[in-house]
C-alpha cells in the first residue's frame, strides 16, 4: 500500500496499532468502535445470526447516534452488519451480505461503484459522514490466509481507494477527517475471533491536513519490518477511537464509552487550555460511570487537575471500568456447577447398573469419561484437547487389534491399512491452538506450497483416490442391472462435478491464475479454458457456484433414488435389497455431499477415513460387546477428526467458507448480459 505509506511518512497520516478486544469478529468490534464499550461473547454468536434484531444499537449511545441527533447525514455502503446495528440512522445505504466469503470482488465493487457520485460535488452536498466497509480482504484471509496469492492485489486496490478519496475530497477540505481501520486482524491460517496477537492487532490510520505539520508518527518510516509482536506505531485500545473521534468532530462522547482520548493527538490542539478541556470532558464522562458503578455521590475532583494528573486519572479509571465490565454473577455459576455435579453422579450410577455384568468394559469407560472431564480444568488443556483424543484413539485401536490377534482369522493387511490411515489423519493438519500455524508444516501445508508445475498433478491424484472408492462401493454392492447403470451414471456425474469444483478451488486459491497460468501443467490449462468456454463464464466464483448447484441436483437425485431402491426393486423386479448393500450405498452417497462441503485441502483426508473404517470393520465386526466397541469408535473418531480437519476450541478456527456454498442471490451481481467467452487457443497449444 504505497500511497498509504507516503501519507504516513509525510505526516499527513497518523498510524496506530489498535488492540481489539476479543471476540475479534465484526459485530462486537463494530459495537466497540462506535460505542466505546467492550463486547460480550454472545455477540460472537449474533455476528452470524443474520436475522437477529436483538443486537441493535438503536437505543444505545454512540457517535453514530450523536451524529444523527445533531442532524448529520450519514451514508453507509458495505457490510450489512451496520444496518443491523443501526437501523434507520442512515440517510442513504446499501448493505452487502458479508458471509459469502468465497467472493473477493463483487462485495467490494458494490461499495466502490458509489464513489463516483458520493465524491462528486452533488454527492458531497448530501452527506456529512461517509462509511465504506470493504469485505474483500477479510474474505481472502478466510479462504487463503494472510499470504494468499490474492492478498497483494486486493491491498493495492484498497490503496487506490485511499488515494482517490484523499485526492478528490480530503485535500479539498482542511476540516475533513479520514479514518482507515480494520475491525480485527487474522491469524496465520486466515481466521479470527480469538485472542492471539495477530487477531487482536488491527491497523488504524487517521488522516487530515491538520496533522501534516505535527510529527505524530515518531519518525517511524513505512513500511516497517514485520514482527510477530505487531509492535509498529503507538499501540492503543481500539475503543480509544470513540472519544478521540467524537472530540475531533465536536460531538459529545457516548455515555457508555470506556475508551480514553489518544494522547498523541493533543498536539493538534493549539494550547494547553484546549488540551486540558479535551481531557476534562473525557475524564468527566468516565467519572460518571465510575460513580454509578460504586453507587457514590459525584464529587467535583477533576476541575483543578493538571494535564498529567488528568492523563493518570483517565488511565486508572479506564483500567477499573474495563475490569468491572467483565464481572460475573458467581452465585449462578456455582449453582450451575452444582447441577452438573448432581447430573454426573446420577449418570455414573445409571451407567454402573447397566454395565454391572461387564466390569472391565465399564471400568475403562469410566476412566475415559473421568480423564476427559479433568481435561477441562485448565485452559491450556482445553487448547490442546486434540492430544487427549489422539491418545485415547490409539489405545482403543491397539485394544481392537490385540483382541483380533487372539482369533485365528487375522487379516494383517487390514491392520496395516488402518494404522497407515490413522497416522496420515494425524499428520494432515496442525491441531490445537498453540501450534496451529502454517509455519508448523503438515501434509496439507506441503500440498498448498507445491510449485504450479507439480501441485496440480499431486492434487488430481489425491482427488482420484478420494472419489474412486465411492464409485467402487456402488458397483461392488449393487446387483440389479438397470438400477446399477442409472446409479453409475449419477455417481460418475457427481464425481466429475465435485472433482472439477475442488480442482478449481485448489488452482484459484493456491496460485495466482492470471500470473502463473503458463506454468501450470498442460491438462490444467485445457481444463480451465474448456470449463470457461462450456459455461460461458469468466469469473471463477460464478463457475464454482454453477458447478456446486449442478452437483447438488445430481446428488439429490442419487440420494432419493437410493432411498427408494427397496420399494422400486420390489415393485419392478420382485426382489429385495440386502441391508448391507443398502447402507453401504447410503454411506457412499452421503460421502459425496460431505466432500463437496469440505475445504479443498482437506478432501484427501477421506482416503485416510476409508482406510480406518475398512480396517476397523474387518477387525471388530466379530468382537463381543459390539455396541460398546462401535459407540466408542464413533465418539473417538468424531472428536479426533474435528481437530484433524483443522478445527480447534478457539472461535478463530470456525470456518464459514463451507456454510455458503449455495447459489448466490442474483441481486449480488451486477445486472447485464453475460459475456460470451472468447476461447483462447493457448489451451490447446501447450503440448
TrEMBL record:
It is found in: Endoplasmic reticulum membrane. GO terms for molecular function: CP2 mannose-ethanolamine phosphotransferase activity. SUPFAM superfamilies: Alkaline phosphatase-like. Pfam families: Phosphodiest, PIGO_PIGG. Keywords: Endoplasmic reticulum, Glycoprotein, GPI-anchor biosynthesis, Membrane, Transferase, Transmembrane, Transmembrane helix. The chain crosses the membrane at residues 332-355, 362-382, 388-405, 458-477, 489-508, 577-595, 601-617, 629-646. Pathway: Glycolipid biosynthesis; glycosylphosphatidylinositol-anchor biosynthesis. It is a multi-pass membrane protein. Residues 326-661 form the GPI ethanolamine phosphate transferase 2 C-terminal domain. It comes from the Eukaryota. Its main location: endoplasmic reticulum. One of its GO terms (biological process) is GPI anchor biosynthetic process. GO terms for cellular component: endoplasmic reticulum membrane. The keyword Transcription does not apply. Ethanolamine phosphate transferase involved in glycosylphosphatidylinositol-anchor biosynthesis. Transfers ethanolamine phosphate to the GPI second mannose. Belongs to the PIGG/PIGN/PIGO family. PIGG subfamily. This is GPI ethanolamine phosphate transferase 2.
Amino acid at each position: 500500500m504505497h500511497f498509504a505509506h507516503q501519507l504516513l511518512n509525510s505526516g499527513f497520516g497518523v498510524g496506530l496499532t489498535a488492540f481489539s478486544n476479543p471476540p475479534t469478529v465484526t459485530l462486537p468490534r463494530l459495537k466497540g468502535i462506535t460505542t466505546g464499550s467492550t463486547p460480550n461473547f454472545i455477540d460472537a454468536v449474533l455476528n452470524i445470526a443474520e436475522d437477529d434484531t436483538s443486537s441493535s444499537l438503536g437505543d444505545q449511545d454512540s457517535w453514530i447516534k450523536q451524529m444523527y441527533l445533531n442532524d448529520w447525514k450519514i451514508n453507509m455502503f458495505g457490510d450489512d452488519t451496520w444496518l443491523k446495528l443501526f437501523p434507520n440512522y442512515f440517510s442513504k445505504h446499501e448493505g452487502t451480505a458479508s458471509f459469502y466469503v468465497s467472493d473477493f470482488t463483487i462485495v467490494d465493487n458494490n461499495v466502490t461503484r458509489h464513489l463516483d457520485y458520493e465524491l462528486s460535488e452533488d454527492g458531497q452536498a448530501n452527506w456529512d459522514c461517509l462509511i465504506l466497509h470493504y469485505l474483500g480482504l477479510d474474505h481472502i484471509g478466510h479462504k487463503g490466509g494472510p499470504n494468499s496469492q490474492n492478498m497483494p492485489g486486493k491491498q493495492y486496490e484498497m490503496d487506490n481507494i485511499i488515494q482517490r478519496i484523499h485526492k478528490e475530497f480530503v485535500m479539498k477540505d482542511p476540516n475533513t477527517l479520514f479514518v482507515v481501520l480494520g475491525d480485527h486482524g487474522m491469524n496465520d491460517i486466515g481466521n479470527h475471533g480469538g485472542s492471539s496477537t495477530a487477531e487482536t492487532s488491527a491497523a488504524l490510520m487517521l488522516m487530515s491536513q491538520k496533522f501534516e505539520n505535527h510529527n505524530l508518527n515518531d519518525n517511524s518510516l513505512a513500511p516497517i519490518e514485520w514482527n510477530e509482536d505487531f509492535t509498529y506505531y503507538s499501540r492503543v485500545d481500539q475503543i480509544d477511537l470513540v472519544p478521540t473521534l467524537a472530540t475531533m468532530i465536536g460531538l459529545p462522547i457516548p455515555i457508555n464509552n470506556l475508551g480514553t482520548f489518544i494522547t498523541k493527538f493533543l498536539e493538534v490542539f493549539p494550547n494547553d487550555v484546549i488540551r486540558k478541556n479535551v481531557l476534562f470532558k473525557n475524564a468527566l464522562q468516565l467519572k460518571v460511570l465510575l460513580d454509578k458503578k460504586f453507587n457514590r455521590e459525584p464529587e467535583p475532583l477533576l476541575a483543578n487537575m493538571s494535564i498529567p494528573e488528568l492523563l493518570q486519572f483517565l488511565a486508572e479509571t479506564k483500567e477499573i471500568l474495563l475490569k468491572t465490565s467483565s464481572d460475573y454473577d458467581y452465585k449462578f455459576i456455582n449453582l450451575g456447577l452444582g447441577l452438573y455435579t448432581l447430573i454426573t453422579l446420577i449418570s455414573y450410577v445409571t451407567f454402573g447398573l447397566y454395565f454391572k455384568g461387564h466390569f472391565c468394559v465399564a471400568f475403562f469407560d469410566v476412566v475415559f469419561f473421568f480423564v476427559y472431564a479433568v481435561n477441562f480444568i485448565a485452559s491450556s488443556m482445553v487448547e490442546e484437547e486434540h492430544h487427549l483424543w489422539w491418545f485415547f484413539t490409539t489405545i482403543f485401536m491397539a485394544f481392537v487389534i490385540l483382541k483380533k490377534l487372539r482369533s485365528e482369522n487375522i487379516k494383517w493387511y487390514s491392520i496395516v491399512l488402518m494404522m497407515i490411515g490413522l497416522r496420515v489423519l494425524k499428520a494432515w493438519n496442525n491441531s490445537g491452538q498453540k501450534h496451529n500455524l502454517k509455519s508448523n508444516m503438515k501434509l496439507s501445508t506441503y500440498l498448498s506450497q507445491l510449485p504450479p508445475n507439480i501441485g496440480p498433478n499431486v492434487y488430481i491424484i489425491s482427488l482420484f483416490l478420494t472419489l474412486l472408492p465411492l464409485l467402487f462401493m456402488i458397483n461392488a454392492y449393487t446387483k440389479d442391472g438397470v438400477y446399477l447403470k442409472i446409479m453409475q451414471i449419477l455417481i460418475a456425474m457427481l464425481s466429475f462435478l465435485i472433482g472439477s469444483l475442488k480442482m478449481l478451488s485448489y488452482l484459484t486459491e493456491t496460485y495466482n491464475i492470471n500470473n502463473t497460468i503458463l506454468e501450470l501443467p498442460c491438462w490444467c490449462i485445457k481444463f480451465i479454458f474448456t470449463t470457461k468456454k462450456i459455461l460461458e463464464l469468466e469469473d471463477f466464483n460464478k463457475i464454482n457456484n454453477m458447478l456446486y448447484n449442478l452437483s447438488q441436483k445430481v446428488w439429490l437425485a442419487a440420494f432419493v433414488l437410493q432411498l427408494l431402491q427397496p420399494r422400486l426393486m420390489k415393485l419392478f423386479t420382485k426382489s429385495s435389497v440386502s441391508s448391507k448393500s443398502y447402507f453401504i450405498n447410503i454411506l457412499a452417497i452421503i460421502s459425496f455431499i460431505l466432500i463437496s462441503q469440505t475445504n479443498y485441502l482437506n478432501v484427501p483426508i477421506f482416503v485416510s477415513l476409508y482406510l480406518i473404517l475398512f480396517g476397523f470393520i474387518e477387525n471388530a465386526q466379530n468382537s463381543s460387546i459390539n455396541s460398546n466397541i462401535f459407540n466408542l469408535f464413533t465418539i473417538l473418531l468424531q472428536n479426533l477428526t474435528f481437530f484433524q480437519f483443522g478445527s480447534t476450541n478457539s472461535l478463530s478456527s470456525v470456518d464459514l467458507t463451507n456454510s455458503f456454498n449455495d447459489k448466490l442471490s442474483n441481486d449480488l451481481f451486477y445486472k447485464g448480459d453475460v459475456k460470451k467467452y472468447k476461447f483462447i487457443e493457448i489451451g490447446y497449444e501447450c503440448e
